[in-house]
Structures are given as structure tokens and as C-alpha cells.
Amino acid sequence: MTAHEARRLVVRARDALIGPSRPMRVDPIRLPEPELRAAYRILNFALRAGGLMLSSGAGTIEVEATILDLAAACGLHQCEVDVTFTSMTASYIRADDVEPITAVRVVRHRTVDYGLLAGVDALRVDLTAGRISPEEAFARFDAVEAAPEPRRPVVLLSWAGMAAAFAVLLGGGPLVAAVAFVSTAVVTWLLRALARWGIPDFFLSAAGAAVATTFAMVLVALHAPAQSDLVVAGGIMVLVPGYSLVASVQDALTGFPISGSARGLEVLLTATGIITGVAGALYASVSLGLSLHLGSVELTPFVQVPVQVVAAGVASALYGAATRVPRRSLLAAGTVGAVGWALLLLLRHGGLSLIVAAAAAAVAIGLAGNVMAGRQRTHPFLFVVPGVMPLVPGLTIYQGMLDLFTGSPQAAATLARALAIGLAIAAGVTLGNQMLRPLRRVSNTSPVRRAPTDGHPAVGPADGAEGPEAEPEAEAEAPE
To answer: Measured between alpha carbons, how far is 120 from 141 in angstroms, rounded to an integer?
Structure first.
């Protein structure tokens, strides 16, 4: 028997047992149907916009509303959205007996950039009002996302100028303002350099606070006629996460406790980093025989009120410039900050406690910020967050840090007072924001264009997909 005949017998025996052999069939990769591709494209667009807002400092309720508005404006009306501090999930419910189309996006990097926030909010307003088509919205979002970063000298000078304005706001003179300006410029440059190495924010805050305290130590060593504590207070105002505090309380009060807790933990870690940096520098000063004097916080005389009101407005405007608030909104942001500080001083002279006065001023800032946002058709955070920065209790925080370092029994009470002031400010801003938010949304938008009658999204499929599902875009652009 030859080898060929032996192979044939083996093949026949195998076929008799397991059936004739056939080459394995490999199914080709199945791409989504055109309708699915269009839905995925819309969901990814909405989540990208929401992620940009979340990473730029917006509250969770604003992010969720933006994702739903953008999806509905593109034809996906039955969507469910879940937003947390680090991720977002959106699902398009096609029918009760069909699995939903779901997309997920994770937010890993955060930076305070109100220019991006304003760009996304303006896009949402125009798209939901029908002034632009979905395809135009996609292209416009790409332009917003690719916007160039602000020039570094502008950002550095804005932060330094804000610290100098805060030093004047707290009662410092020209020398204190000049030292606060220089120290904050050094801190800003140092933090940018360290951030390139991927160092966590906790250590960045500690390093910045240590540098600001070191400049105050130099003033003490030189016996300069200036209040060193105001230099530290002005310097750490750049590090205090006022936007995170406002967004944290807003999330907690508007039904997002998980996001609010995560933002609150971020605020706590940043504050702990500031305390660590100040404590380390103070320990070094004691070792060198230096002693930082902490002046008492006194009620501002009426003679100094105009100067401090102007300083508050300048500090708010410069904070806006440092966080990329558009130029057309800087004057309004400074005005909101000046009005809020003037109201605080007025209420304090009227006999109210600092906590109550700060809360009332924060409510006024929230209302004024929403009014400005309605007039300029933009996001209220562009005016609210810069406006509340003068109210942040920087000197009280510094007092508590120094008391904690020196073992004073007043440390816990002082830090608790600073926390109460911060929470009152955040709650007041949230109340003012929520009071006018529905009116602002109605005035900025008109009814969303009606979805196509065949149930398909208002955006055609990507990559040139063919078929009846590729036509709804033209139908959606027609007037209702």
C-alpha cells in the first residue's frame, strides 16, 4: 500500500466518524449599521463636549444638561446620561425591546479654562436654537477643542497681579503688593515647571505655599516695614481652589453627592498641601530664629473701602484673564467681584457676622453672574468664580495654619471658621445660580428642531455610508 492510499483510508475513516472536513469559515468583521454609526457619532460628540466642560471646571449638572441638549439637538431624544467626577456614560434608548447604544468617555486631565467652557456653551446655545446644523457643530467643536493655549507671560502676569491685588484688598501697602507680585510670579513659574514632570497637585500646592512663605521670611529677615502675613495670604490665594469648592457644593446640593464628595476631597487635598507647605517653611523659619507676625483681622474703615473695592474688581478681572475668560467678559467679571466685595463690607458695617455677610454677597454674585451670562449668552461661571475669589477667606486660612503650627488652642476654631465661610460662599453662589438658571436657559434657546419622522438621527453616518439612513441630515436642516 502506497503512502497516498494510506492517507485516503485515514481521511475516509475520519469522515465516517466526524463528518467530512471543510475549511473553517471566518465571518467578516461586521460594521454597525448606518443608523448605529450616526448615533455613535452623535454620542461621542456630546460626550467630548461634556468632557471638555467637566475638565474645565463646570458643575456636574451643567455637564449632564449639555450632553442631553447636544444629543437631542442632533436627533437623539431618548438618552440617559450618567456623569461622575472622572467619567461619563451616555445611552440612546432606541426602543423598549432593542438594546441601547452606549458610549463612554473618561476625563483624566483637569485644568481651569473658562475659554473652553465659554466655547462649548456658545456652541450648545446655537445648536439647540437651530442657528447651526449638527455637521457645523461638529466642525465648530473641533475648532474649540484645538484652540491655542494662552501665552505664558500673560498667564504669569495675571496670577502675579491678582496676588498683588489681594494683598491690597487685605490691607497691605505698596511694598506688600510688590513682594506678593514677585513671589506669585515665582510660584507660577515653578508650578508650571513641576507640572511637566507629572507631579500630583498635592505636592504642587505644598511647593507653592512654601515659596510664598519663604518670601515672607525674607521680609522678616530684612526687617522690612511690611506685614509678612499678607504676603503669604496673597500668595496662597492663587493656590486656593475656589472653583472646586463652588462646584463641590453645587454638585452636593443639586443631586450629585458622589461628584460633590470627589470634588470636596480634591479641595481637602489641596488645602492640606497648602498647610504642609506653609508649616514646612514656618518650621525652617523657627530653626533660623525668625518669627512671622500675624496681624489681626479687623473691620475695614470706611476710608479704605473704595481702595479695597477697586482692588477686588482688579483681582477678579485678573483671575479671569489667568483662566482664559474671554476679553469681552473681563470687565463684567471684575464688576461682579467689586460689587460682591462692596456688599460684604456694607453688611459687615451693618453688624452682620462675616459668615452671613459672605453668604449674602455670594448670593448676589450668583444672581449677577447669571444676569451677565444671559446678556452675553455664555456660561455664568465666567463671572461667578472670578467674582467670589475676593471672598475666599485667605487670611483666615493662614491664621488657622499658623495657629495649628504653633499649637494654639484656637487653631481648630479658626480653621472651622474658614471652612464655614467657604461653605457659605459656595452655597450662596449655588442658590443665586439656581434662582435664575431656568430663565437663562429659556432665553438662550428656542425649541429644538423636530427629529426626522423615520426615527433616524439628524446626522448622517460617517465615512460615506450609503442607504436610506444617510439622508436624515438634509431633512433635519429644513425648518420645522
So the answer is: 7
∠ CA 7-13-14, rounded to 5°? 90
Domain residue ranges in the chain: 34-148, 152-442
Mapping DSSP onto H, E and C, the string for the chain reads CCHHHHHHHHHHHHHHHHCCCCCCCCCCCCCCCHHHHHHHHHHHHHHHHHHHHHHCCCCHHHHHHHHHHHHHHCCCCCEEEEECCCEEEEEECCECCECCEEEEEECCCCCCCHHHHHHHHHHHHHHHCCCCCHHHHHHHHHHHHCCCCCCHHHHHHHHHHHHHHHHHHCCCCHHHHHHHHHHHHHHHHHHHHHHCCCCCHHHHHHHHHHHHHHHHHHHHHCCCCCCHHHHHHHHHCCCCCHHHHHHHHHHHHCCCHHHHHHHHHHHHHHHHHHHHHHHHHHHHHHHCCCCCCCCCCCCCCHHHHHHHHHHHHHHHHHHHHHCCCCHHHHHHHHHHHHHHHHHHHHHHHCCCCHHHHHHHHHHHHHHHHHHHHHHHCCCCHHHHHHHHHHHCCHHHHHHHHHHHHHCCCCHHHHHHHHHHHHHHHHHHHHHHHHHHHHHHHHHHCCCCCCCCCCCCCCCCCCCCCCCHHHCHHHHHHCCC
- Report how far residue 451's alpha carbon sits from residue 469's, in angstroms, rounded to the nearest whole number: 13
* Blockwise average pLDDT, block size 10, the chain, 480 residues: 58 52 45 70 93 85 90 90 89 84 86 85 90 91 83 86 86 83 88 83 87 82 72 77 74 81 83 82 76 52 75 91 88 92 88 87 89 84 87 71 72 80 82 68 47 50 41 38
pTM of the entire structure?
Answer: 0.75
Distance CA 218, CA 167 (A): 17
